[in-house]
Amino acid sequence: STDMLMSSDKEEDPDVISEDSSLLTLRIRKKALERREETIIVDRACRQETLAYEMESHAIGKRPDNPTDTAEEGELLLTLNIFYPVIFQKHKDHKPYQTVLVLGSQKLTELRDSISCVSDLQIGGEFSSQPDQAPEHISKDLYKSAFFYFEGIFYNDRRYPECRDLSRTIIEWSESHDRGYGNLQSVKMEDYVFNDVSLKIGFPYLFCHQGNCEHIIIITDIRLIHHDDCLDRNLYPLLIKKHWLCTRKCFVCKMYTARWVTNRDSLAPEDPCFFCDVCFRMLHYDAEGNKLGEFLAYPYVDPGIFN
Amino acid sequence: MSSVPGLQADCEELLGAFQQADTVRFERFAELWRERRFHTVFYGRIRALERNKLTKKTLELAQQYFLPPYAFQIRVGALYLLYGLYNTQLCQPKQKIRIALKDWPEIQKFQQDLIDSQHYDAAYIFRRLRLARAFHFTAMPKLLNYRTKKKIEENEFKEEFKDPSNRVNSLITNDVLEELMNIHDHYQKMKCFISADKSQPDKALSLIKDDFVVTLKDITLEHQEWQQNRMKLFLNAKETDETENKKKDETLLQSEGSERASALARIKYRSYSAVAEASKSRRHRQVKLESSESGKSPSRSRKTSRRAQAARRRDSPEVRGETELAKETVTRHIGMPVIVEENSDE
């Protein structure tokens, strides 16, 4: 018995649902399609959908150039949902997240490095007087500490001397009184791979960096690696799904993404007000670079920067 | 994940037809499949992203029928269904079938059963799927959903597909009976040992009936036969009532054409069949009652602690009779106790 028995014998167009279908699924689908035809003028994939599909499928079946980089047969593949920290109020109900695939034999530090959060790129400080001297150091370089929390164990990033044990406060707090938490331990992130970590599927865990930027992590799936998956180790942790955030545009030109935000600005109509670099300088500084009016200006990194 | 509308009904219809055909041959399934042109279930101008999701959900739905507690025939049907859906899907590369780790030993046992009972076509189909690398071996059967659902969807699968839950049989297995026999013998020997006459125990020591193990076995066999008969009657009754009630069904469906109407039709249709079936089965049941009565009259009077379980099943229905009565019009199942049906006035 071959699968010729399943397929039709004449040429069929999968897009057309025949009139006399006995399947309920098809009847319902046909109605939905007809409704779609009536209401939608141009029926094609929008760019978000194309992007989402691309992200999901771009790495399928990839093989590495160097054979030593191939994922092995018994390798586990974990699917993690990493939620963004809630910045906008509308995110409180449907939290946006990104989905990452991770190999079981990868270290936790590799995942930590792959998580891109907008708070890593913030530049602290007020620069209204010296707009050209906004420092190069982003927060990611300054505050390198981070930890994961899985099942009662804090995995701290200790690769650099600047990294501190952020979890120490929490452990001390839980030990100070009988708060009902079991023994919380603190270990080094770089010593562990995912195969060593005990996990529950569907249970929310935490990733904390920058001292107070917290991301919830949920493991949605663990499975054995498959012939059709991407077998190139270098591509993991692999991002397969990302939330699309609308970027805030400059108030003046409404074209470029905002790079500066001002407070208590006598020249701006609202507080806070966002400007792109060019409009910011044109409005607030004269030809010689002197500051006009009173305001506080901060460099702004839009959360949609990763789109 | 929210389910694909109509898919469950279609799958159940196909599996139901397969169950009616009362065979596990793949040719028969393929005929049913071709009749319904089931491969068109993926048609309809669906874009790539949506198609992936749809195929995943379809395979997941079909996979649920592949595992216990469904009956053997349904599981073989589900295997064929998975094979068909996997091969006719339009996604490239193909979406895989998820099998959880905990289910894998059962599936291997199932495959061994297939080979032992010489259903080589089913075993071959399974082997083909394995070779085609159609399975994802996962930790959990369902891929998780990250949206908080407004309401929890309850999957109600058809009762007929399930293997009649053989709790009595799973409790009183052959091993258990054997052990009981051994203990009983040992007990008898001990009694003989301590009594004056070494060949048989004292009269004062006879506290239990001697052949209760045999009786227990007889009762469980009877229960199993009763259950099988009940299933057969139910299926037969459903068939004959279907033709009568089809007209009522159709008019109801056509007049409103909405889901609510079809749900109402289904409930009415079920209650009709329950009523009709009660009368039919009562007739049968009465016959059976007499025959079982005659055969079992000596056993009716036993009252031992071991028998309490079996006895409780017969006695408590009298107490529960009233509640069973109320439930009869709503559910499709007839209460097991014989005594209830004599008292009911349907």
Strand content of chain B: under 5%
**Rg for CA atoms of chain A:** 26 Å
Largest pleated sheet of chain B: 2 strands, parallel
The succession of helices and strands of chain A, N to C, reads HHEEHHEEHEEEEEEHE
Span between N and C termini of chain B?
Answer: 42 Å
Helicity level of chain A: 10-25%
Counting DSSP H or I runs of 4 or more residues, the number of helices of chain B is 12
Strand order of the largest sheet of chain B: 1-2
What is the gyration radius of chain B calculated from CA atoms? 26 Å
Compute the separation of the termini of chain A in Å: 49 Å
Q: Greatest contact pair? A: A-B, 45 and 48 residues
Low-pLDDT windows of residues of chain A: none
Main location (chain A): nucleus
Protein name (chain A): snRNA-activating protein complex subunit 3
Subunit structure (chain A): Part of the SNAPc complex composed of 5 subunits: SNAPC1, SNAPC2, SNAPC3, SNAPC4 and SNAPC5. SNAPC3 interacts with SNAPC1.
Family (chain A): Belongs to the SNAPC3/SRD2 family.
Task: Characterise this structure.
The complex is a heterodimer of chains A (307) and B (346). Chain A has two domains: 47-125 and 138-242, no CATH class; 260-306, no CATH class. Chain A is built from six helices and eleven strands. Chain A has helices at 24-39, 47-57, 108-114, 139-142, 167-176, 277-284; strands spanning 76-83, 97-103, 146-150, 153-156, 185-188, 204-209, 213-224, 238-241, 260-263, 273-275, 296-299. Chain A has an eight-stranded mixed beta sheet with strand order 5-4-3-6-7-1-2-8, sandwiched between helices. The longest helix of chain A is centred in the first third of the chain and has 16 residues, at 24-39. The two termini of chain A are 49 Å apart. With 346 residues, chain B is an all-alpha fold. In chain B, helix 1 (7-21) packs across helix 2. Chain B is elongated and about 90 Å long. Residues 249-257 and 271-346 of chain B have low confidence and may be disordered. At the A-B interface, helix 1, helix 2 and strand 7 of A face helix 1, helix 2, helix 3, helix 4 and helix 6 of B.
